[in-house]
Structure formats: C-alpha cells, structure tokens
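Help needed: design a sequence for this.
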C-alpha cells in the first residue's frame, strides 16, 4: 500500500465500476461556473472570483467543495438565501485584527477579502487575526490557508460548518458541525505543508460526493441513532458524523466553533442553519484566518530551509511494512493539481448531467466536454 488510511484525503479517481467518469479541463469548469453565477445575478468580477476558487478546489481534488456545489449555490441564490450584491465591510478593527461583515454574500468573496486584509495587517504587525460574520459556505479550508504562503506567511484557518452533523460526545442532539481547520506552511524547494481537516472523521462534503457517485461510506465515518455503523451514503441524513479521536475531536470542534463563530458574532450551536435543507434563511456563517509573517520571526529564508529539512527527514524516515511512501500534508493535493491541470478534472457522469440541466435552466452554454 502507498499510504496509511486517511479518510479525509480525496480519492485520486472518484469513479467506480458503477459510474462513468468524464474528464473536464479546468478552464471549462471555470467558464461554466462564472457564466452560471452571472446568470444568477452575481456581478461579472464576483462571479469570476468565485468560479476561480471553486475551480481550484476541484483542481486539488477537493471534489466535495468544487463544482458539485454549484447547483445548490444557485438554488440558494435564486431562493433569496444569498445576497448577490453584498456590502462587505469591516465592522471592528484594531492594528492586528478585524471583523468583516459579509452582508450575506457568497462565502468565497467574504473570506478571500478577510484573508487579503489579514495579509496586509500581518505585514505591518507580524501577526493578524481577521474573522467573518454574515458569511456563507466558502469551499475547502485549504484554499484560504494557502493564500498567505505566496507572501512568505503562514495561514491558519478556522470555520463553522454550514450544517450540524455532530452531537456532543455521548449525546444525540446535533449541536456541532465539521468545523474545519487548515494550515498553510511555506517551504523552500519542497511543496508547502498544507493541512486541511474536518474535526469529524470525514467532511460532510465527502459524504455528498459519495452519494453522488452511488458509493457506500467506509465504516467509521457515520453512525445511526442506535450507535451502529451507517454505510449507506443515501441515508446519511439518518445518522451522525463521528469526531476524530473520539471525545478529543468533539472538544476540538467546540473550540473551533467558538473561535470562528461565537467570537465574531456568527452562528454556532443551535443557531447554525442547515444550508443543505434550508435555501432561504441567511446562514450567518463564521470563519477566521490567522496570518503570521515570517519576516517578523527572523526572515522567510531560514524558516523555509528548516521546513525543507524536516520534510525530507520525515519522507525518508523508516516505514512500516508494506508502506512504500510517507506523505506530508498537502503533497497529494500538490501532485493532483499538476495531474488534473494536464488531463482534466474527473467528474461523475451524474454530476455532468445535473450541470447540463442547470445550463438549460439558466440559458447558458453547457459544460464543454
């Protein structure tokens, strides 16, 4: 085997023997996504920005957060659940922090604005925290943790998930979400170290992707209300996600929610709106980015050299039997990005048919094959 099991790592080939996979080039996905959002009312510049970020999600293999989300986003917009022309603004601010109110705009727009502000503040202060409120689902956490890397900065990202799928440890009321964490650490010659993880064993986007492909869930991802394994992806609404590390994952999900949601005045606990079922109520989603400028800690060069050394030590360390490679966080996404840029992004045939129907509804050109 090439690596130890990691259920939160996207599969390289999402197709199964029961489904056909179509390989679509990334520019075609971005073009289609941009035109769909424009048809739904987003200004061209905003539509292009969201499309690019969603395209990057698919390109790195985050198949639960890319174009698979397009139809639900459009449905929410057309139902009045998302503001297509938001006034995104700073409502609280000091030298090294800010809170951005997204005015119920697309989460991708709100969070990318927050990251840009955090980078600018970190350049002045060394460290900066910028949180959001009145935001929406924004795709994979790693998109935003990676942004500071280009500026020789570290990015640490936290978010409240857009639906509660996790009860407190030992409970049955779903009061917590997947509440993801991501970290982007610059390296020198090696790929950046990028960790993106839900505080549950699997992100709910992966459950949706499995259901779209007609695949069963691995045992250990979800349980039903009797505490028994739930492996039928079409019945995911009947059960709970499991936290990573048992009670420790529950505690981590709680802390992330308090930092990303409660601190900024965003939804948490019972106030979280299930955007998979409710397309009209504003979600008031909260996210937060912490950016650290390496220049404030002695310079980027020495740090990146040290990261390279550690990465190589880990990669070349002694392996268990039948393990032919030790992976660093983000390496597989890095390789996938290069591969998909050349051969295209794999999409299930059922999803492509769904996108064709969406094109017809919006009167736009279908997805280029």
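Sure. Designed sequence:
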């Amino acid at each position: 085997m090439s690596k130890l099991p990691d259920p939160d790592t996207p599969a390289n080939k999402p197709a199964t023997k029961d489904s056909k996979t179509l390989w679509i080039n990334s520019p075609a996905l971005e073009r289609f996504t941009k035109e769909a959002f424009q048809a739904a009312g987003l200004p061209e510049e905003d539509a292009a920005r969201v499309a690019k970020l969603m395209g990057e999600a698919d390109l790195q293999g985050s198949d639960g957060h890319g174009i698979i989300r397009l139809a639900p986003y459009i449905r929410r917009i057309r139902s009045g659940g998302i503001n297509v022309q938001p006034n995104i603004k700073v409502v609280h601010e000091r030298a090294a922090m800010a809170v951005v109110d997204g005015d119920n705009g697309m989460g991708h727009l709100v969070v990318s604005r927050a990251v840009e502000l955090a980078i600018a503040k970190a350049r002045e202060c060394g460290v900066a925290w910028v949180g959001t409120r009145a935001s929406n689902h924004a795709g994979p956490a790693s998109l935003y943790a990676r942004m500071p890397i280009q500026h020789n900065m570290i990015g640490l990202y936290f978010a409240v998930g857009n639906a509660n799928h996790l009860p407190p440890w030992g409970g049955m009321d779903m009061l917590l979400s997947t509440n993801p964490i991501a970290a982007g650490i610059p390296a020198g010659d090696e790929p950046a170290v990028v960790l993106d993880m839900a505080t549950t064993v699997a992100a709910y986007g992966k459950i949706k992707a499995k259901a779209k492909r007609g695949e069963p869930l691995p045992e250990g991802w979800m349980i039903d209300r009797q505490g028994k394994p739930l492996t039928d992806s079409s019945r995911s609404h009947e059960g709970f996600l499991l936290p990573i590390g048992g009670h420790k994952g529950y505690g981590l999900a709680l802390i992330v929610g308090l930092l990303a949601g409660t601190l900024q005045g965003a939804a948490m606990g019972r106030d979280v709106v299930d955007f998979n079922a409710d397309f009209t109520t504003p979600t008031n989603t909260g996210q937060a980015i912490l950016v650290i400028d390496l220049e404030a800690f002695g310079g980027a060069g020495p740090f990146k050299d040290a990261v390279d050394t550690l990465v190589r030590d880990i990669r070349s360390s002694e392996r268990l039997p039948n393990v032919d490679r030790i992976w660093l966080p983000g390496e597989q996404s890095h390789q996938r990005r290069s591969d998909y840029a050349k051969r295209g992004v794999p999409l299930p045939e059922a999803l492509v048919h769904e996108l064709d129907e969406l094109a017809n509804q919006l009167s736009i050109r279908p997805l280029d094959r």
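DSSP finds ten helices and eleven strands in the chain.
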